[in-house]
Amino acid sequence: MGGTGIGEGRLRFDYTILGAMSGPTYEQINGLRSEIEGLGTWVGLRSLSTEPELEAGRVKAVDLRLESPPNIPVARRLNAEFRANWRYGPGTAPDEITISERLQVQTNVKRGVDWDDHLRVHFSIRNLLRLVAWRELKFASHEVTRATDGVRTLDGKRHGDIWLPVLTQRTGMTVGPPTKLRQNDFLFNFTDVGGKGVGRWLQLVTKFERGLSLLIGVLDLDGASLEAHIAQIGIGFEMLGYDLLVEAGISRTQASKRSYAELVAVVTAAVEDVLPFSGAGFPDLLRRTYIGVKHADRARPDVNEGLLAYLQAVQVVRAWVGSRLGVSKGRLQQALRDDARSLRIQELYGELALAGSKKA
User: Fold this and answer.
1) What is the pTM of this model?
2) What is the C-alpha to C-alpha distance for residues 336 and 315, in angstroms, rounded to an integer?
3) Where do the domains of the chain lie?
4) Which top-rank group of organisms is this from (predicted)?
5) Given pLDDT bands bounded at 50, 70 and 90, which one contains residue 55?
């Protein structure tokens, strides 16, 4: 008997471009815009200004002005820049008017390139925000433009670019309302490094990609054990220390002969004068805890000691990045001293000292 001709199939799309005339047109793209959780707060670029009018000590009226400020160039690579804009219109409730501000990372070139070329820049800036806030920040939205699919009238003439929203699971976009952050949630802000600092970061993540991708990737270990965090951050420090030696002119052969603690010490030495704790004992502490979770025949590290090693490792790498991006020494010292992780480190010192005195 013949079949019914009915079957089942599945289609998988990397990107869904809402409003696009043709999918193949967007195999390469000219521009990509991305919103990232916390970006607007970190940069501090605003479109809305307010001027209250007072009467008898009370606010009588408020003048609101919406004006998009100039874009901020941050790198030559794909003409990367920060772009602020705003929206104004009816809200979801009756008689409601809403104003929303947006800050986006934008890359835009005359000749179309692959999506991954754009996304490398956008992911790098997202990872910078993650490191500075030490939170798993995500993309909130994407928009794309293609020069061959611009705004056209009925006569076929082109009248500028059109930016269309993108739906994708490839970038790990947030589901639900974006995370809200305050300026003091970041170790340092855009004003501390400027566009040049962001440009330095894009160079840094290329040069030290192996170590930095692992170190920042720790933030993706949601729900994983402390041991898993230590294992990954331990590998990241080893790679970063090795690459720093190579950068300093040490041959790869000689660099590979350095002990684990020596490689960690290379990273620590660059920022020891800004750390709010002594960096002298950190390389051996990380070595002990890393070896303890890596090898089954070694003693499992004490929980507090493991947490101390992990938090110190986080602060060392954040300090190292801040220093390389141009944050002043005084600003970095103060920021690290006030950071919640540094305060927890001091508490752990006290808890470990108390536990040691009881054993004695």
Assistant:
1) 0.89
2) 7
3) 16-184, 208-359
4) Bacteria
5) confident
